[in-house]
Structure to design on (343 residues):
């Protein structure tokens, strides 16, 4: 991947991934899902999850799983509105970039 | 290095952060290893690179969050978060291409923070202050309003008096004119004096009327402009 993923885009991707699961999802799974679309060092995600949690975009809860606790992350209403904002911004941004890149080549 | 060594080293490196943050982070990575499964332990260790890198990422995340908290109103200075420096000064992000300072990012959380506005205690203080000082405030506001009303109606009083004086002069002039014409044939001198007085009255009446019109047409707008200018000066 030659393009960098900025902090905002990473937040948007994480929020989108978490919002797909109505009951929430857990750290390892989020990491794997995000890594399907972008290259990401595994240690990068924890601070993002922690911050989104502190910003009240996500809430955490623990669920018993195979004899141990697993921490689940769930999107909040605030997180949803933040995600909608990101989606809107992304649509505009990516539209403009696509327009200028593809327009330049004229496929 | 195996998982246990990794976790021990990470715990040691996180000694200088708040305990709840340390516990959170250690739980997260403990869970992460468990979810990945024992068979993937080496792979995860390779992906995480080193405890140092993981610890640096955690600390940078905390720092970014602290800086961000510091930008709440009242702090007076725009700290690192605002300039994006919180994301750029960290050593850990240099290795990965993931985090580059992104100016766009700062706007949404800042807007959210601004919405909260003043801290709760300041609002409480203002409300209490308003309640305690309400008699004084009402008194002051009443006085100012009263003074303004007095000026306003005083001005109109003057205008009405001038107008009435003008009208009175006109009426007196008209009466004298008619009477003067009536008597001029059998009492010529009295009649002439009356006509003279009539024209004098009409002239004075005209003067008063001109004064009234001038007051209404020029002085009133000028006074309004003056008041609004004064108001702007006070509220600026």
């Amino acid at each position: 991947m030659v393009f960098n993923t900025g902090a905002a885009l990473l937040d948007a991707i994480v929020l989108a991934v978490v919002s797909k699961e109505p009951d929430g999802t857990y750290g390892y799974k989020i990491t794997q899902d995000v890594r399907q679309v972008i290259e990401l060092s595994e240690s990068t995600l924890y601070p993002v999850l922690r911050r989104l949690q502190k910003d009240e975009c996500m809430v955490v809860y623990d669920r018993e799983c195979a004899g141990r606790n697993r921490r689940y992350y769930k999107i909040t209403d605030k997180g949803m509105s933040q995600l909608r904002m990101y989606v809107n911004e992304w649509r505009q941004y990516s539209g403009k970039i696509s327009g200028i890149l593809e327009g330049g080549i004229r496929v | 290095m195996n998982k246990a060594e990794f976790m021990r080293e990470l715990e040691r490196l996180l000694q200088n952060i708040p305990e709840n943050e340390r516990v959170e982070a250690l739980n997260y990575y403990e869970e992460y290893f468990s979810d990945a499964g024992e068979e993937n332990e080496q792979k995860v260790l390779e992906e995480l690179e080193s405890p140092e890198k993981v610890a640096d990422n955690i600390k940078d995340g905390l720092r970014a969050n602290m800086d961000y908290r510091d930008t709440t109103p009242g702090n007076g200075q725009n700290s690192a978060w605002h300039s994006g420096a919180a994301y750029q000064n960290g050593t850990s992000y240099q290795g990965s291409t993931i985090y580059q300072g992104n100016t766009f990012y700062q706007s949404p959380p800042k807007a959210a923070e601004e919405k909260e506005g003043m801290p709760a205690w300041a609002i409480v203080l203002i409300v209490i202050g308003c309640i305690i000082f309400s008699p004084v405030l009402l008194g002051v506001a009443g006085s100012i309003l009263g003074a303004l009303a007095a000026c306003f109606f005083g001005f109109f009083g003057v205008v009405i008096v001038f107008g009435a004086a003008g009208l009175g002069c006109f009426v007196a002039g008209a009466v004298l004119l008619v009477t003067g014409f009536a008597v001029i044939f059998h009492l010529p001198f009295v009649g002439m004096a009356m006509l003279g007085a009539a024209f004098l009255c009409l002239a004075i009446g005209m003067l008063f009327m001109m004064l009234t019109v001038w007051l209404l047409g020029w002085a009133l707008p000028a006074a309004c402009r003056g008041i609004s200018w004064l108001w702007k000066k006070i509220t600026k």
